[in-house]
Amino acid sequence: MQVKQAVIGSHGLDTQFSGINFLESLVSEFSPSTSTAMGLPREFHEQCRTSLELDYLKAFYCWAQDAALSVANRIIGSNSAVPEVRVCSAALRLMLQILNWDFRYNTNVEGAKKSIDVFSTGVRQDSNSPKRSDYALVQPGSSWHDVLISSGHIEWLLGLYGALRQKFSCEGYWLDCPIAVSSRKLIVQFCSLTGTVFTSDNGHTQGQHLLQILSGIIQWIEPLDAISKAIGLGKSESEMLDGCRALLSIATVTTPLVFDQLLKSIRPFGTLSLLSALMSEVLKDLMANNAEEETWSWVARDILLDTWTTLLLPRDSAGQNTLLPPEGINAAASLFALIVESEMKAASASASSDENEDYLQASIVGMDERLSSYALIAQAAIDVTIPLLTRLFAERFARLHQGRGKSDPTETLEELYSLLLITGHVLADEGLGETPLRSPTYATTAIGSRYDYRVRHTLNLADSGITATKDSPAGAGGVRGVLDAFLLACYAESVDLKGLVIPGQRNPPLGRDKNLPRMPERLDQRRIGYARAMRSFQRQVDGILKRLSTMGIGYAGVPQPIQNHMMESRETEHPVVVLSSSVIKFAEQSLDPEMRASFFSPRLMEAVTWFLARWSCTYLMPSEESGDKARSSENDYEPQLQPHNPKGKSQGFFGEDNQGKAVLDIIVRISTTTLVSYPGEKDLQELACHQLFHGLVRRRNVCAHLVALVPAAFLPLGRQGSSPVTMKHITLITAAAQAVAALPPSCCRTVASPDSWRCLANTFANDRILFSLNATHQRSLAQSLVLSASGMTTPEASNQYVRDLMGHMTAYLVELSGKNDLKDIAQQPDVILLVTCLLERLRGGASASEPRTQKAIYEMGFTAMNPVLIFLEVYKHEISTEPSFVPGTGLDKISGSADVAESSGQQVIGFCSAKIKSAVVYLLLKFVVDWVDAQIIYLEAQETIVVINFCMRLLQLYSSHNIGRMSLSLSSSLLSEANTEKYKDLRALLQLLSNLCAKDLVVYLGLHIVSPLITLDMLKYPKLCHDYFYLLSHMLEVYPEMIVQLNHEALAHVLGNLDFGLHHQDAEVVDMCLRALKALASYHYKEISASKVGLGLHATAYKDPDGNLQDGILSRFLRSLLQFLLFDDYSTDLVSAAADALLPLILCEQDLYQKLGNELIERQGNPAFRSRLVNALQLLTSSNNVSSKLDRPNYQKFRKNLQSFLIEVRGFLRTI
Questions:
Q1: Is the pLDDT of residue 142 over 80?
Q2: Among 711, 703, 709, 937, which residue's Cα sits nearest to residue 802?
Q3: How many CB atoms lie within 10 A of CB 663?
Q4: Which of 55, 697, 786, 1126 is deepest in the core (most CB within 10 A)?
């Protein structure tokens, strides 16, 4: 009561301010995530939290409201600073803190937590959103309705801020004053209010609540241009940014339709239009002020992009994109146009300015997040944005040819780079780990009637381009490029009358949509003389074809619609096809050496390769299965990109029966060019090897065409058959005729495609040119080439293909390993490099093993067995990190002599040399690991014996030479490097043993060989730790009886590591250790129940050399597991695994369990806690009729008992 009186101002302003601060500290202290460690039980903290939330939090908020109300009028009426401002600011902060509370115990929310979570750390877990801006939903429950909604509190808050804002409008500093900041933060927080705090009236109350707030904050961001200009002149940007955050918060609690409708009740436009205009202004500021450091517009752009992402991301389980209302589509279209303009301007500026290095240095991955948000906006207005991208791309392509040899193309190339990235994100999803489908947006969007004629612009482009290039050094090639770009631009603009029913035509141009609008009255005149226009069009087409024939032009750059009387088929007219074709034709220009040298820098080729990899996974030769999946939700789209043929197959424009083979050939040739013509460009070659090739070979139907590519020319915009045409094409054909007439007869030639994939395979197998690739890229390339064998017609052909591909490499390894002077030549750098490349290729081939190619890959590994052992023997002494490996340095005797510095330098040189050679040993081990992993499940008995014997020899050889041993004389940095090398080797050996376990083979001998090399320090490496405990868990689960065969030292090592893993921070490692404990304890219990020995002496107590009594295995782990369960932090997911381990341990060590329980009870000084603990321990082993059987039903009963036991006792046993 005294605190309340202080807060509401009964004892003066100073006391009021102190009382509010006291409540703020109290709320912070009662939240477990910010509470002070007091040594009290966790249950106490949770009870305090529950009590505060249910009994006091609402009251505190009301007190803060009253405090702010009591001083508000004084603040508004005063013309100078008054002490009441401090009180009001503190009250607003308290209200904000209370609304930010993690409400858990609201009984009106379905599924709300009503019991204490004794396992969590108490830290609030908000949504794991990938967005750049943080936000949290506010869900206090229906009991808060009167305080927050019906009381008029929000109207008062908006009025207070509005009055103060108007009063201090001339004072620029006021926006950043505490009272202004606190008010805005509280208003923004109210935007996130949701849940049962609103009445159940179909969202009407919440809509009115959001409209009220939106009406208040709109003045923070309007007028947009004036506010942007004022910020540029020094005004604070905080209010503008808070307005953006408010829009984001509103978007999180509404659908796009509701979001857009909010503003329409008070404005002639919707909220989406406001959002678009706001972001447009931000983008304009970014373009005008291209600063090196992040400005307000950078922050605002990120917030607004998050708002668009929130609205447009699929919200249903089917992953369907959110549809916008028509006005929202227009807003998205105009915004995307400005986005592209800003990106193009930034790209262009980066080419000529040394100051703007951020754009040049930004990688594709680094820009991915922002571009993904851009893509969502584009996909919301796909009928406008795709043609826009097509036009921009064609214009830049033509500009590139116009200025060839005359101007610097860097700006245009940077713009093309930016366009490629944007286009790739718009057309296709990332699709990692799956075969991505086209966005449903492309399927359901009908091409609208919006269209802007640009024929005159296109004609001017063609005329100037041909004039500029036909007499240039580029010659016919340059003219051909201009013509290609011109025709693509024409076709990109040929979407007139799309979406309209044309008289005399049975079906709509876009397929089967019966809801397409009829031709409007203003187009009635176009119906007059339609047949006459069609006949005229046919005559012009025939004339152009005849002229092309006389000129000997068979160049694929001429669109198929012109060559085959087909200007507007359902497939070719689709904007996605047009845009894709234009990009592919541009990429194909990189195959011309002159064009490649002039324009295609490594940076641009990275974008080209990235686009092709992303695009091909979605559109190139879509399989029948993926087409069937898409068909259910893409009925309108099927006639355009995936029409049904009589055989029932779903083939699109880039399908197997259309242009797919030609495009595939182009992609392979471009990829080969990146490997051969760009030496040393690791990023570019990684994209080709790891993304593009891998994406192609993961589908069987594509592999079938890869291994059987035949000469073909890519005809980008057509297919065989008749096609309806439109009036627009008369103009386009006339323009095309003028462009063709300007070409010299020798400017175009037919392009023949080589057998590109087989050519790549032959180069890989027989030519050393690809040895210049990074070793990992060679492994990836080998994997892709071997995987493509699945496209062969028969298993025999697939195996022969692999033998031809990999045979030369194994043969060379055999030849090299048989040389008499191998020890000498093996130390030469070029030989080390060669062996490394060969091993990486063999690894790639081994990891690509499939049933069809298993035989050939087994033969490959079998042939390499002896060379592997020989090379391991050769490099063994060179890998040791003992100082003696540096001849003549006397590192083992270094003390304080004057030669220390020189010797240390030699030590470093020697260590680096050893490190290089150690990579060979690691690759030898990894090759064996990958090969065994791929082959072990296929092997027959005799083959299995051969592989096991080989692996044991390998392990013994590695152990006998103690490869990777450490020297204490090494410096700490070198010692760390040596540890890393050793970790990699040991992890490879553990993986090898795990692979052998897959064949149900007893490999304790291998573990006995490797275990001494694995120390607790080595287990700090996460991957090595995981592999070690995976192997240990598997072996103890399958062969628990073998543990008794280990000697005392080996057993102590295994048990020590097991105890280490039980307390590991990785839950998966802990789970594996619990499974191992369950296996050991249950094995021993079942054995002794059958009057057998079980674990024997290992399970009984013993005296150590010092005479101290030590627990047996099971006693030791019973103590450790109980300590873990009662006092440590862990995930609730581990409780079931822990119960499965604890039950057999209790059954084996019942006396010890009783003793530990009594000790725990005696330590409880609180009688209530002691009584609860006694009852909980009794119920643990008696409730639910738990018996002494180790069967599935009994395990399930004990899991329930342990869960209840922990909930009951952990709250007061653990202290915080």
A1: yes
A2: 703
A3: 25
A4: 786
Distance CA 15, CA 21 (A): 10
Burial of 1205 (C-beta count, 10 Å sphere; 0-12/13-18/19+)? buried
DSSP string for residues in 1137-1163: HHHHHHHHHHHH-HHHHHHHHHHHHHT
Condensed to tens digits (0 to 9), the pLDDT of residues 63-118 reads 999 999 999 988 988 877 788 999 999 999 999 999 988 888 764 444 444 445 55
Give the dihedral of Cα atoms 678, 682, 684, 690; nearest 10 deg.
130
Distances (CA, A) of 495 to 306, 492, 573: 33, 7, 7
Please, which pLDDT band fits residue 981 given cuts at 50, 70 and 90? low
- For tokens 């409008």, name the residue: 169
Whether the predicted pLDDT of 189 surpasses 90: yes
Other Cβ atoms less than 10 A from the Cβ of 266: the count is 10
Angle between helices 1048-1062 and 1113-1127 (to 10 degrees): 10
- Residues 297, 285: Cα–Cα separation, whole Å: 7
Distances (CA, A) of 1068 to 1022, 1062, 1124, 1125: 11, 10, 15, 16
Q: What is the 3-class SS of 928-942, one letter each residue? A: HHHHHHHHCCCCCHH
Does residue 965 sit in helix, strand or coil?
A: coil
Establish how many alpha carbons lie within 13 A of residue 936's alpha carbon, considering only the half-sphere containing its beta carbon. Answer: 20
The closest alpha carbon to 588, from 510, 664, 519, belongs to: 664
SS3 percent helix, strand, coil of the chain, rounded to 5, is: 70, 0, 30
Query: The tokens 């096809």 sit on which residue?
Result: 577
Write out pLDDT tens, residues 627-677. 444 333 333 323 233 333 333 232 467 888 888 888 999 999 999 999 999
Q: Is the pLDDT of residue 746 over 50?
A: no
Structure tokens that stand for 807 in this block: 């045979």
1103 bridge partner residues = 1109
Which helix (H) or strand (E) segment is 225 a member of? helix 224-232
CB atoms within 10 A of CB 1110: 11
Q: 1102, 1096, 1010, 1006: which is closest to 1057 by C-alpha?
A: 1010
Write the Ramachandran bin of 697: left for phi over 0, alpha for psi from -120 to 50, otherwise beta: alpha
CA diameter of the chain: 113
Cβ neighbourhood burial of 19 (10 Å; 0-12, 13-18, 19+)? buried
- The CA-based angle 701-703-707, given to 5 degrees, is 130
Give CA–CA dist 823/817, Å, rounded: 9
pLDDT tens by residue, 282-292: 999 888 887 55
Helix or strand holding residue 122 (H, E): none
Average pLDDT in the chain: 75
Check: CB of residue 166 under 8 Å from CB of residue 79.
Answer: no
Q: Which residues are 1102's β-sheet partners?
A: 1110
Residue 1109, beta-bridge partner list? 1103
Could you give the angle at the alpha carbon of 387 between the alpha carbons of 381 and 391, nearest 5°? 140
Does position 479 have pLDDT exceeding 80, yes or no? no
Residue 101 CA to residue 419 CA, distance in Å, equals: 45
Using DSSP's 3-state secondary structure scheme, residue 747 falls into coil
Helices of type H across 936-970: 941-960
List alpha helices for 403-454, DSSP H: 410-427, 440-444
For residue 952 the two structure tokens come to: 């044991």
Contact, 64 vs 72, CB < 8 A?
Answer: no
Rounded to an integer, what distance in angstroms lies between the CA atom of residue 677 and that of residue 667? Answer: 15
Tokens of 908: 């470093």
CB 651 within 8 A of CB 701: no
The radius of gyration computed from the CA coordinates of the chain, to the nearest angstrom, equals 37
* Cα dist from 652 to 66, 442, 571, 624, 638, whole Å: 68, 14, 8, 10, 8
Does the model's pTM come out above 0.85? no
User: Which residue type occupies 489?
Assistant: A
